[in-house]
Amino acid sequence: MESLKLPKGERERCPTGIEGLDNILNGGIPRGNTVLLTGSCGTGKTTMSLEFLVHGALAGENSLFLSVTEASSKLLSNVIPYEFFDESLISSGKLTFIDMAAMYDRLGLEKSEFTFEDISLLVDSIGEIVEELAIKRLVVDSITSVCYRLKTEEKIRDFILRLGKVVSEKGCTTILVSEISPKEERYSLYGVEEAIADGIILMGNLERRGDLLRTLQVVKMRGTQHSRTKYVLDLTPVGLLLVPLLKGGGGV
Ligand SMILES: Nc1ncnc2c1ncn2[C@@H]1O[C@H](COP(=O)(O)OP(=O)(O)OP(=O)(O)O)[C@@H](O)[C@H]1O
Ligand SMILES: [Mg+2]
After folding, report:
1. Amino acid 182: pLDDT
2. Nearest Cα to 146, choosing from 73, 83, 69?
3. Which one of 4, 16, 77, 85 has the largest count of C-beta atoms within 10 Å of its C-beta?
């Protein structure tokens, strides 16, 4: 899973380790990007984020999952069945899970609405963890749950821009998971998140012949050329598999 040799001037990549996605992205996510992984419930966002981290950890990059919605102990049960998952990644510190609730508790942020000072505190605290643990891949699942406590567009913008800057400066590539309703016309709940993220990967559901398929589409990715084709996504014990929708994915 080494970075491909890139033409002059091309940005270094953070290969996701998901072959189909790395092909779409011409080698992977440009390193340091903040990517919004967005979709409705059950589309595979958490599974894909975990796979991104496990592949990073296997390649020697320290990886952190910041869990806002689910207890991290529960998340582990999602990765353990994977053939490529190795529990020593956790004991060796290559793969770390932290519950955001514990961070809020530690920082005195158990409140329904954050101030700009609270945002600074939270971003600095995440930055310190990224620095201390030398994290190169970060997932926040989900940013939407953090946004509920930010409330205003200004604060959401402030949080995402600050977080992106702090971690990107440390060479860390970030996936922010975003939850939207199936009929959503935009890519994020508040509309702000999508505008400031460096990339958007959209996950969806598609009904075909009585079956509900999962789909994936890269909508934007700063720093690389990429296909915007819709792919059918299969969650398998060997990881995510992608087939272009029009090339027979989903039996069309
Ligand atoms: N390796 C796998 N093989 C088959 N099914 C899987 C696999 N991994 C996850 N799933 C199934 O895929 C579904 C969705 O996965 P996931 O939790 O990643 O979606 P999500 O987009 O994060 O959903 P939510 O918005 O509810 O958090 C779950 O029902 C899960 O059982
Ligand atoms: Mg999820």
Report:
1. 85
2. 69
3. 16
Give mean pLDDT, residues 114-142: 97
pLDDT at site 252:
44
Tokens of residue 251, six digits: 């039996």
Interstrand relation of 135-141 and 95-99 (parallel, antiparallel or unpaired)? unpaired
Go through the chain and tell me how many residues it has.
Answer: 252
Q: Cβ < 6 Å from ligand 1: which residues? A: 39, 41-47, 78, 179, 235-237
Q: Compute, in angstroms, the gap from residue 45 CA to the centroid of ligand 2.
A: 5
**What's the CA-to-centroid distance between 78 and ligand 1, angstroms?**
8
pLDDT tens by residue, 46-66:
999 999 999 999 999 999 999
Tell me how far apart the alpha carbons of residues 4 and 14 are, in angstroms, rounded to a whole number: 10
In testing the pocket of ligand 1, which one of 43, 47, 77 has its CB within 8 Å of the most ligand atoms? Answer: 47
Instruction: Give the residue from 19, 24, 98, 15 showing the smallest Cα distance to 57.
Output: 15
